[in-house]
Amino acid sequence: DDAEDVNSMENVMLEYAAMDRELNNYMKAIEETVSKIKQEKPENFPDLKSLVKEKFTELESKNSDSDLQRNEKYLYFKDQLKEMRKQCDMQCDNDNEAIEQIDEDIAVTQSQMNFICPITQVEMKRPVRNKICGHSYEEDAILKIIQTRKKQKKKVRCPKIGCSHVDVKESDLVPDEALKRAIDSQNKQ
């Protein structure tokens, strides 16, 4: 299922790259048309819309799918994906160790961990982890959002940017003891 999600995200990024390329071509067509018009005499002004469309069509005809693979935002996405896989592999290795080893592991990896709540944007004091998507939040902050949205009869989307989980429930939240120990450990240093 993770591979399916990654493929889906990759397809979205390729669609984004295509839209980005199209927009850039359109902007270039306008710039080149305006530049060309500036050299003409005022009485020779042609139909600007058709000139831009003609130039845009010319630029678009030079496109290829390999262009999309070289889009800087797509390449950045691929780099981020590689980095996430590396971190996930490291995390999986750490999870196989005994519970007594966790505090030492946290000391080694805490520079990679995020102690900031995605809601409050401050360091968490009582972190809770969502069992469904795995993201952590400050307990009071997420509970307040859940209660507010419940009154409005609306679902709560996970506040972590990029998460697709759209129905966070209080029953899905568990204290994140490992994260709490990591935060406490860092604050002692």
UniProtKB/TrEMBL annotation:
One of its GO terms (biological process) is protein sumoylation. One of its GO terms (cellular component) is Smc5-Smc6 complex. Pathway: Protein modification; protein sumoylation. Residues 102-188 form the SP-RING-type domain. Transmembrane segments: none annotated. It is found in: Nucleus. Coiled coil: none annotated. Pfam families: zf-Nse (PF11789). InterPro entries: Nse2(Mms21), Znf_MIZ, Znf_RING/FYVE/PHD. Signal peptide: none annotated. It comes from the Eukaryota. GO terms for molecular function: ligase activity; SUMO ligase activity; zinc ion binding. Keywords: Ligase, Metal-binding, Nucleus, Transferase, Ubl conjugation pathway, Zinc, Zinc-finger. PANTHER family: E3 SUMO-PROTEIN LIGASE NSE2. Belongs to the NSE2 family. This is E3 SUMO-protein ligase NSE2. It comes from Heliornis fulica (sungrebe). The gene is Nsmce2.
